[in-house]
Write a structure and sequence with these properties.
Elements lengths: L14 E6 L5 H14 L5 E4 L26 E2 L12 H17 L4 E4 L3 H8 L9 H14 L1 H11 L1 H6 L5 H11 L21 E6 L3 H17 L2 H10 L14 H8 L5 H23 L5 E4 L5 H6 L1
Parallel strand pairs: 1-4, 1-5, 2-3, 2-4, 5-6
Helix pairs in contact: 2-3, 4-5, 4-7, 5-7, 8-11, 9-10, 10-11
Length: 312
Amino acid sequence: MRAADASLSPSPRRLWAVVGATGTGKSDLALDLAEALRARGNPAEIVNADAMQLYRGMDIGTAKLPPEDRRGIPHHLLDVRDVEQEAAVAWYQPLARSAVMDIQSRGGDAILVGGSGLYVSSVVYDFSFPPRDPELRERLERDLEEQGVAPLMERIRALDPATAARVDPKNGRRVVRALEVLEQGRATYGAALPEKPLLWQADTRVIGLHVPREELVARLDARVERMWESGLVDEVELLRERGLRRGVTAPRAIGYAQALGELEGRLTRSEAIAETQALTRRYARRQVSWFKRYPELVWHQPPVDVATLIDD
């Protein structure tokens, strides 16, 4: 082989993770990266790690790329759940890892992209989830409905104060899951990034997208307004007919909960938009805090030279 041809040789099969706050351009970067890898002989494919993009029909409010905008790059784990079904990270992890290994077995690089921190972590890092107990879960959900969240939080504090300190008491589903785990005799609540996370695959690159706070806030506020202009309320009305209200996860998504509030007369349109903007800004802060804990992460500010990423 001539020396000039060496740069065209396929590189080792990698797992890439493109992470960061919502609205930073992760989807576009993942596509740019996939195209650049393919140009070098690696048939790269994308695996979704956005919890709400798992749902069929949740498109406008999740900024899901329509098929015609995916540049011919195969995407995995989009539109795989109905809105009345629960999307749990313990369910997602084996599916995402299977998709990654399938891509790699066919000679390609897998690009994991999304801002759902726990979903990304479940693939990138080597940790497992505690088992589920459907009967216990049903009993705890009944307790939550009859007693409210406060008594369940007290039970968690009695069993494990450290778990109680990191479970959001406003999130009844998380409270029930934590108590389900603890009552099975587990010492800690499993759905958290380990103190010293170990990579699932050694050849993993974690790319973080960072946009200055002031610029990101303006982007996010404008994005929410575009969601309403693009027909989010109509989308939610259709999803409500498909069982959105019966869902556990989907109806609580930022934007979707507020559009439901508008449809049901609990919020005016201006109130729904303002509440969605505030929650989106708060969520973006939490995402950045989560990803800062990744020791392998290297932050980049758009625009990103993907050739440099590949050559590093």
